[in-house]
Amino acid sequence: MSQHAPAFARRVLGAFAAAVIATAATAAISQTLNVYNWNDYIDPAVIERFQRETGIAVRYDVFESLETLEAKLLAGRSGYDIVVPTNEPTFSRLIRAGALQPLDRAKIPNWGNLDRTLMQRLDRSDEGNRHGVIYLWGTIGLGLNPARIREVAPDAPLDSWDLLFKPEHASRIARCGITMMDSAIDVIPTVLHYLGLDPNSTAEADLRKVEQTLMAIRPHIRTFSTGGAIEQLATGQSCLAFAYSGDAIQAADRAQEAGQGVEVKYVAPREGAQLWFDVLAIPKDAPNAEAAHRFIDFLLQPEVIAAVTNHVAYPNAVPASKPMIEPDILADRNVYPAEQDFARFFTIGAVPQAAERARSRMWARFKAGR
Question: What pLDDT shows up at residue 1?
Fold first, then answer.
Protein backbone atom coordinates (compact mmCIF):
# COMPACT_ATOMS: atom_id res chain seq x y z
CA MET A 1 0.00 0.00 0.00
CA SER A 2 1.24 3.54 -0.79
CA GLN A 3 2.79 5.43 2.12
CA HIS A 4 0.64 8.38 1.11
CA ALA A 5 -2.69 6.60 1.70
CA PRO A 6 -4.87 8.01 4.48
CA ALA A 7 -3.77 6.98 7.97
CA PHE A 8 -7.27 5.57 8.70
CA ALA A 9 -7.07 3.27 5.68
CA ARG A 10 -3.63 2.09 6.74
CA ARG A 11 -4.94 1.33 10.24
CA VAL A 12 -7.95 -0.57 8.91
CA LEU A 13 -5.91 -2.67 6.48
CA GLY A 14 -3.22 -3.18 9.11
CA ALA A 15 -5.78 -4.44 11.58
CA PHE A 16 -7.26 -6.73 8.92
CA ALA A 17 -3.83 -8.16 8.08
CA ALA A 18 -3.10 -8.74 11.78
CA ALA A 19 -6.40 -10.54 12.16
CA VAL A 20 -5.61 -12.77 9.16
CA ILE A 21 -2.17 -13.57 10.55
CA ALA A 22 -3.61 -14.32 13.98
CA THR A 23 -6.26 -16.58 12.46
CA ALA A 24 -3.68 -18.42 10.37
CA ALA A 25 -1.45 -18.86 13.41
CA THR A 26 -4.33 -20.21 15.45
CA ALA A 27 -5.23 -22.63 12.66
CA ALA A 28 -1.64 -23.84 12.45
CA ILE A 29 -1.39 -24.34 16.20
CA SER A 30 -4.65 -26.28 16.20
CA GLN A 31 -3.20 -28.76 13.68
CA THR A 32 -1.90 -32.09 14.91
CA LEU A 33 0.55 -34.41 13.19
CA ASN A 34 0.08 -38.03 14.24
CA VAL A 35 3.31 -40.05 14.04
CA TYR A 36 3.71 -43.82 14.49
CA ASN A 37 7.38 -44.76 14.72
CA TRP A 38 9.69 -47.36 16.24
CA ASN A 39 10.58 -46.83 19.89
CA ASP A 40 13.77 -44.90 20.72
CA TYR A 41 14.03 -43.79 17.10
CA ILE A 42 14.19 -40.00 17.01
CA ASP A 43 15.83 -37.12 18.82
CA PRO A 44 13.10 -35.50 20.98
CA ALA A 45 14.69 -32.13 20.27
CA VAL A 46 13.86 -32.62 16.57
CA ILE A 47 10.16 -33.01 17.41
CA GLU A 48 10.31 -29.91 19.59
CA ARG A 49 11.97 -27.93 16.79
CA PHE A 50 9.35 -29.01 14.25
CA GLN A 51 6.53 -27.93 16.57
CA ARG A 52 8.24 -24.63 17.29
CA GLU A 53 8.94 -23.80 13.64
CA THR A 54 5.59 -24.89 12.21
CA GLY A 55 3.13 -24.47 15.07
CA ILE A 56 1.95 -28.03 14.39
CA ALA A 57 1.52 -30.19 17.48
CA VAL A 58 2.93 -33.72 17.27
CA ARG A 59 1.24 -36.77 18.79
CA TYR A 60 3.92 -39.43 18.83
CA ASP A 61 3.16 -43.13 19.34
CA VAL A 62 5.60 -46.04 19.12
CA PHE A 63 5.55 -49.69 18.11
CA GLU A 64 8.00 -52.56 18.63
CA SER A 65 7.27 -54.88 15.72
CA LEU A 66 6.39 -54.73 12.05
CA GLU A 67 3.49 -57.08 12.69
CA THR A 68 1.89 -54.49 15.00
CA LEU A 69 2.36 -51.66 12.51
CA GLU A 70 1.06 -53.68 9.58
CA ALA A 71 -2.05 -54.90 11.38
CA LYS A 72 -2.97 -51.36 12.39
CA LEU A 73 -2.49 -49.95 8.89
CA LEU A 74 -4.32 -52.75 7.09
CA ALA A 75 -7.29 -52.39 9.44
CA GLY A 76 -7.70 -48.80 8.18
CA ARG A 77 -8.50 -45.58 9.98
CA SER A 78 -5.36 -45.75 12.05
CA GLY A 79 -5.45 -42.02 12.64
CA TYR A 80 -1.77 -41.64 11.75
CA ASP A 81 -0.25 -39.19 9.28
CA ILE A 82 3.31 -40.55 9.29
CA VAL A 83 4.30 -44.19 9.65
CA VAL A 84 7.76 -45.75 9.46
CA PRO A 85 7.60 -49.26 7.97
CA THR A 86 10.65 -51.29 7.03
CA ASN A 87 11.04 -51.73 3.29
CA GLU A 88 10.51 -55.48 3.25
CA PRO A 89 8.16 -56.99 3.65
CA THR A 90 5.93 -54.40 5.34
CA PHE A 91 6.41 -51.28 3.19
CA SER A 92 5.99 -53.10 -0.13
CA ARG A 93 3.02 -55.06 1.19
CA LEU A 94 1.28 -51.89 2.41
CA ILE A 95 1.77 -50.37 -1.04
CA ARG A 96 0.20 -53.37 -2.76
CA ALA A 97 -2.71 -53.26 -0.32
CA GLY A 98 -3.36 -49.62 -1.18
CA ALA A 99 -2.75 -48.56 2.42
CA LEU A 100 -0.26 -45.81 1.54
CA GLN A 101 -0.69 -42.72 -0.61
CA PRO A 102 1.80 -41.50 -3.22
CA LEU A 103 3.96 -38.62 -2.04
CA ASP A 104 3.70 -35.19 -3.64
CA ARG A 105 7.33 -34.35 -4.37
CA ALA A 106 6.40 -30.73 -5.04
CA LYS A 107 5.72 -30.49 -1.30
CA ILE A 108 9.11 -32.03 -0.43
CA PRO A 109 11.75 -29.61 -1.79
CA ASN A 110 14.47 -31.38 0.22
CA TRP A 111 13.90 -34.61 -1.74
CA GLY A 112 16.99 -33.69 -3.73
CA ASN A 113 19.13 -34.19 -0.62
CA LEU A 114 18.58 -37.96 -0.68
CA ASP A 115 21.32 -40.44 -1.61
CA ARG A 116 20.39 -41.66 -5.10
CA THR A 117 22.16 -45.01 -4.74
CA LEU A 118 20.29 -45.89 -1.56
CA MET A 119 16.99 -44.73 -3.02
CA GLN A 120 17.65 -46.97 -6.03
CA ARG A 121 17.96 -49.91 -3.64
CA LEU A 122 14.58 -48.95 -2.19
CA ASP A 123 13.13 -48.94 -5.70
CA ARG A 124 12.84 -52.72 -5.51
CA SER A 125 10.19 -52.29 -2.82
CA ASP A 126 8.60 -49.13 -4.23
CA GLU A 127 9.01 -48.75 -7.98
CA GLY A 128 9.81 -45.16 -8.82
CA ASN A 129 10.10 -44.25 -5.12
CA ARG A 130 6.50 -43.06 -5.21
CA HIS A 131 5.37 -43.88 -1.68
CA GLY A 132 8.22 -43.18 0.68
CA VAL A 133 11.69 -41.87 1.45
CA ILE A 134 14.43 -43.46 3.51
CA TYR A 135 14.42 -42.24 7.10
CA LEU A 136 17.19 -44.39 8.57
CA TRP A 137 18.77 -47.70 7.60
CA GLY A 138 21.06 -50.36 8.94
CA THR A 139 21.68 -54.07 9.36
CA ILE A 140 20.47 -56.85 11.65
CA GLY A 141 23.14 -58.66 13.59
CA LEU A 142 24.38 -59.35 17.11
CA GLY A 143 24.69 -57.07 20.09
CA LEU A 144 27.13 -58.60 22.53
CA ASN A 145 29.17 -58.15 25.67
CA PRO A 146 32.55 -59.61 24.63
CA ALA A 147 34.02 -59.86 28.11
CA ARG A 148 31.03 -61.74 29.57
CA ILE A 149 30.89 -64.12 26.61
CA ARG A 150 34.62 -64.79 26.86
CA GLU A 151 34.10 -65.77 30.49
CA VAL A 152 31.50 -68.43 29.71
CA ALA A 153 32.46 -69.45 26.16
CA PRO A 154 36.11 -68.51 25.54
CA ASP A 155 36.31 -70.33 22.20
CA ALA A 156 33.03 -69.02 20.72
CA PRO A 157 33.42 -66.94 17.52
CA LEU A 158 32.33 -63.37 18.21
CA ASP A 159 32.01 -62.47 14.53
CA SER A 160 29.71 -65.30 13.45
CA TRP A 161 26.03 -66.28 13.62
CA ASP A 162 27.38 -69.54 15.09
CA LEU A 163 27.61 -67.64 18.36
CA LEU A 164 23.82 -67.73 18.60
CA PHE A 165 22.64 -70.50 16.30
CA LYS A 166 24.95 -73.31 17.41
CA PRO A 167 23.57 -74.94 20.59
CA GLU A 168 27.04 -75.71 21.91
CA HIS A 169 27.74 -71.97 22.11
CA ALA A 170 24.23 -70.81 23.04
CA SER A 171 24.01 -73.26 25.94
CA ARG A 172 27.05 -71.70 27.59
CA ILE A 173 26.20 -68.09 26.75
CA ALA A 174 22.74 -68.62 28.26
CA ARG A 175 24.37 -68.20 31.67
CA CYS A 176 24.79 -64.48 31.03
CA GLY A 177 21.55 -64.04 29.10
CA ILE A 178 20.38 -64.27 25.47
CA THR A 179 17.71 -61.97 24.05
CA MET A 180 15.97 -62.93 20.81
CA MET A 181 14.33 -60.28 18.64
CA ASP A 182 10.57 -60.80 18.78
CA SER A 183 9.97 -60.55 15.04
CA ALA A 184 9.48 -63.49 12.70
CA ILE A 185 9.71 -61.07 9.78
CA ASP A 186 13.32 -60.28 10.67
CA VAL A 187 14.58 -63.50 12.24
CA ILE A 188 13.44 -66.15 9.74
CA PRO A 189 15.14 -64.66 6.64
CA THR A 190 18.37 -64.34 8.60
CA VAL A 191 18.27 -68.00 9.65
CA LEU A 192 17.52 -69.03 6.06
CA HIS A 193 20.53 -67.06 4.86
CA TYR A 194 22.69 -68.53 7.64
CA LEU A 195 21.71 -72.02 6.50
CA GLY A 196 22.77 -71.22 2.93
CA LEU A 197 19.17 -70.96 1.71
CA ASP A 198 17.29 -68.20 -0.08
CA PRO A 199 16.15 -65.71 2.60
CA ASN A 200 12.90 -65.36 0.62
CA SER A 201 12.28 -69.11 0.44
CA THR A 202 8.71 -70.33 0.91
CA ALA A 203 9.57 -74.04 0.68
CA GLU A 204 8.18 -76.12 3.54
CA ALA A 205 11.42 -78.09 3.77
CA ASP A 206 13.41 -74.88 4.22
CA LEU A 207 11.05 -73.62 6.91
CA ARG A 208 11.43 -76.92 8.76
CA LYS A 209 15.21 -76.43 8.74
CA VAL A 210 14.76 -72.96 10.20
CA GLU A 211 12.47 -74.34 12.90
CA GLN A 212 14.96 -77.07 13.75
CA THR A 213 17.75 -74.50 14.06
CA LEU A 214 15.68 -72.22 16.29
CA MET A 215 14.22 -74.99 18.44
CA ALA A 216 17.72 -76.26 19.15
CA ILE A 217 18.57 -72.98 20.89
CA ARG A 218 15.12 -72.26 22.36
CA PRO A 219 16.00 -73.60 25.85
CA HIS A 220 18.85 -71.10 26.03
CA ILE A 221 16.87 -67.92 25.22
CA ARG A 222 16.06 -65.82 28.26
CA THR A 223 13.72 -63.25 26.72
CA PHE A 224 12.01 -62.23 23.49
CA SER A 225 12.15 -58.50 22.89
CA THR A 226 12.82 -55.99 20.15
CA GLY A 227 13.25 -52.47 21.52
CA GLY A 228 13.84 -53.86 25.00
CA ALA A 229 17.15 -55.31 23.86
CA ILE A 230 18.73 -51.87 24.29
CA GLU A 231 18.14 -51.80 28.03
CA GLN A 232 18.91 -55.48 28.53
CA LEU A 233 22.29 -55.16 26.83
CA ALA A 234 23.14 -51.82 28.44
CA THR A 235 22.42 -53.03 31.97
CA GLY A 236 24.10 -56.39 31.54
CA GLN A 237 20.88 -58.41 31.82
CA SER A 238 21.81 -59.99 28.49
CA CYS A 239 25.26 -60.56 27.03
CA LEU A 240 23.99 -61.54 23.57
CA ALA A 241 21.06 -60.21 21.56
CA PHE A 242 19.74 -60.64 18.04
CA ALA A 243 19.33 -56.93 17.36
CA TYR A 244 19.13 -54.02 14.97
CA SER A 245 22.50 -52.36 14.50
CA GLY A 246 21.47 -49.02 15.98
CA ASP A 247 19.82 -50.62 19.02
CA ALA A 248 23.05 -52.40 19.92
CA ILE A 249 25.06 -49.22 19.37
CA GLN A 250 22.61 -47.24 21.53
CA ALA A 251 23.03 -49.90 24.20
CA ALA A 252 26.80 -49.47 24.00
CA ASP A 253 26.45 -45.72 24.55
CA ARG A 254 24.09 -46.17 27.50
CA ALA A 255 26.36 -48.76 29.08
CA GLN A 256 29.34 -46.43 28.78
CA GLU A 257 27.38 -43.53 30.28
CA ALA A 258 26.27 -45.69 33.21
CA GLY A 259 29.89 -46.48 34.07
CA GLN A 260 29.10 -49.90 35.52
CA GLY A 261 31.75 -51.75 33.56
CA VAL A 262 29.36 -53.14 30.93
CA GLU A 263 30.80 -53.16 27.40
CA VAL A 264 28.52 -53.67 24.40
CA LYS A 265 29.51 -54.09 20.76
CA TYR A 266 27.56 -54.62 17.55
CA VAL A 267 28.64 -57.19 14.97
CA ALA A 268 27.34 -57.72 11.45
CA PRO A 269 28.31 -61.42 11.24
CA ARG A 270 30.78 -62.53 8.63
CA GLU A 271 28.25 -64.89 6.97
CA GLY A 272 26.14 -61.87 6.04
CA ALA A 273 23.54 -59.56 7.55
CA GLN A 274 20.18 -58.29 6.40
CA LEU A 275 20.21 -54.74 5.05
CA TRP A 276 17.01 -52.81 5.68
CA PHE A 277 15.55 -49.36 5.14
CA ASP A 278 12.98 -47.70 7.39
CA VAL A 279 10.75 -45.48 5.31
CA LEU A 280 8.75 -42.33 5.97
CA ALA A 281 5.31 -42.93 4.46
CA ILE A 282 1.82 -41.46 4.62
CA PRO A 283 -1.25 -43.69 5.14
CA LYS A 284 -3.93 -43.50 2.47
CA ASP A 285 -6.46 -42.10 4.96
CA ALA A 286 -4.07 -39.80 6.86
CA PRO A 287 -6.04 -37.03 8.62
CA ASN A 288 -3.35 -34.43 7.92
CA ALA A 289 -1.36 -35.35 4.82
CA GLU A 290 -0.30 -31.73 4.36
CA ALA A 291 1.48 -31.69 7.73
CA ALA A 292 2.94 -35.11 6.95
CA HIS A 293 4.62 -33.75 3.81
CA ARG A 294 5.99 -30.82 5.84
CA PHE A 295 7.41 -33.24 8.41
CA ILE A 296 9.12 -35.36 5.76
CA ASP A 297 10.63 -32.28 4.15
CA PHE A 298 11.73 -31.02 7.58
CA LEU A 299 13.52 -34.29 8.37
CA LEU A 300 15.39 -34.29 5.05
CA GLN A 301 17.30 -31.14 6.03
CA PRO A 302 20.94 -32.19 6.60
CA GLU A 303 21.27 -30.64 10.05
CA VAL A 304 17.96 -32.12 11.22
CA ILE A 305 18.58 -35.70 10.10
CA ALA A 306 22.17 -35.45 11.41
CA ALA A 307 20.73 -34.72 14.85
CA VAL A 308 18.61 -37.86 14.55
CA THR A 309 21.61 -39.99 13.57
CA ASN A 310 23.69 -38.55 16.41
CA HIS A 311 20.93 -39.43 18.88
CA VAL A 312 19.97 -42.94 17.73
CA ALA A 313 23.20 -44.13 16.04
CA TYR A 314 21.55 -45.22 12.78
CA PRO A 315 22.80 -43.93 9.41
CA ASN A 316 20.57 -41.72 7.30
CA ALA A 317 20.24 -41.26 3.55
CA VAL A 318 21.25 -37.58 3.30
CA PRO A 319 24.96 -37.39 2.36
CA ALA A 320 25.16 -33.66 3.15
CA SER A 321 24.50 -34.51 6.81
CA LYS A 322 27.82 -36.31 7.25
CA PRO A 323 29.91 -33.22 8.25
CA MET A 324 27.45 -32.69 11.13
CA ILE A 325 27.52 -36.29 12.37
CA GLU A 326 29.68 -37.12 15.38
CA PRO A 327 33.07 -38.40 14.15
CA ASP A 328 32.98 -41.62 16.17
CA ILE A 329 29.61 -42.56 14.65
CA LEU A 330 30.70 -41.72 11.12
CA ALA A 331 33.93 -43.70 11.52
CA ASP A 332 32.21 -46.80 12.89
CA ARG A 333 31.78 -49.31 10.05
CA ASN A 334 29.03 -51.01 12.02
CA VAL A 335 27.03 -47.78 11.63
CA TYR A 336 28.26 -46.52 8.26
CA PRO A 337 29.52 -49.63 6.41
CA ALA A 338 32.30 -49.28 3.88
CA GLU A 339 31.43 -49.91 0.24
CA GLN A 340 33.00 -53.38 0.32
CA ASP A 341 30.83 -54.36 3.28
CA PHE A 342 27.70 -54.22 1.13
CA ALA A 343 28.80 -57.37 -0.66
CA ARG A 344 28.00 -59.34 2.53
CA PHE A 345 24.57 -57.81 3.02
CA PHE A 346 21.29 -59.12 1.66
CA THR A 347 17.80 -57.70 1.29
CA ILE A 348 14.50 -59.53 1.46
CA GLY A 349 11.21 -59.40 -0.39
CA ALA A 350 7.63 -60.08 0.62
CA VAL A 351 6.43 -63.68 0.62
CA PRO A 352 2.93 -64.92 -0.33
CA GLN A 353 0.26 -64.77 2.34
CA ALA A 354 0.12 -68.55 2.75
CA ALA A 355 3.86 -68.67 3.39
CA GLU A 356 3.57 -65.78 5.81
CA ARG A 357 0.93 -67.67 7.78
CA ALA A 358 3.16 -70.75 7.88
CA ARG A 359 6.02 -68.61 9.18
CA SER A 360 3.77 -67.09 11.85
CA ARG A 361 2.63 -70.52 13.03
CA MET A 362 6.22 -71.71 13.20
CA TRP A 363 7.24 -68.60 15.13
CA ALA A 364 4.45 -69.17 17.65
CA ARG A 365 5.68 -72.73 18.19
CA PHE A 366 9.23 -71.49 18.60
CA LYS A 367 8.27 -68.89 21.21
CA ALA A 368 6.17 -71.44 23.07
CA GLY A 369 9.05 -73.92 22.91
CA ARG A 370 6.98 -76.77 21.49
Answer: 34
